[in-house]
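Sequence only, no structure available. Ideas?
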Amino acid sequence: MFLSSFSSVFLHLWNLWFPNSAAVFLFRIALAISFFSFLRFILASFLAALAWPRDDSARPILSDALPAVFEQTAIDKSLVRIVDLGPFKHTVDDGLELRKAAFECCDTLLDACLPGEHESVAGAASGYAEVLVTGLGDHYDVKMTSHALFAKLAARQGAHAVLLGRLKELVDPMAKTLTQKLKSDAVKQEIDRNEDLIRSCLRAVHACEVYLTGAANDPAFVEFIAKTVNGEKTAAKYAAVKAEAVKKKKPKAKSLAELTAAGAAVKAADDRSEERRVGK
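Reply:
I predicted one. Tokens follow.
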């Protein structure tokens, strides 16, 4: 309402007010994007400052903060509107930027305040699972964050029981992501974004296979792996993701310069020890 009123007054003052005109629509979109992007930046920056470097400072308020953050991850249909542009219609989601900020907050809280060994993970796991059920089927940016969040959560023992209980709800939206077909006239940018999304999804799947104990015994997950992940379209991509994960785990070989410097440091330490022994 505020955005609509403001833009109407502004355009009227500059004699640009035409009912249902493209100028009005584009101005409102630009203003809404700027406003919600600013709110998203403020929320994410505040939470990052709170959670790092003293991550324990946020733990006393987690019981109140987490439900409030989880609530903002849901799609608010009252903020979704369809704009009629004559020959075609455009869907505008004014709540997208705030949802993206909420998901980023969830990710920050999981990393900084809920490490794998912390007992609070089990209590928050049900909330995170609910967030993932909606996030894995949301907008592109939300999906990307949800995939990373899912992979991190799968590596935490305290979340395994909850994730296993809702595994079918979690793999269903990922199956849609992996089998989604692009338009025949898709441009290179759209193709690249879709490939990035598929790789992101497959990394989450691989994390489940590696860390989520019991997933291999879940019928929905087994079927998802057999028919979708190892299907003709994604089998090679999944193999590449697994190879990439193995490569990252291998320790990086030290260069000759690094080995020489390390040897020199050890020799210098030995020389100092010998000097102190002789001095005594």
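The CA atoms of residues 17 and 24 lie 7 Å apart.
Hope that gets you unstuck.
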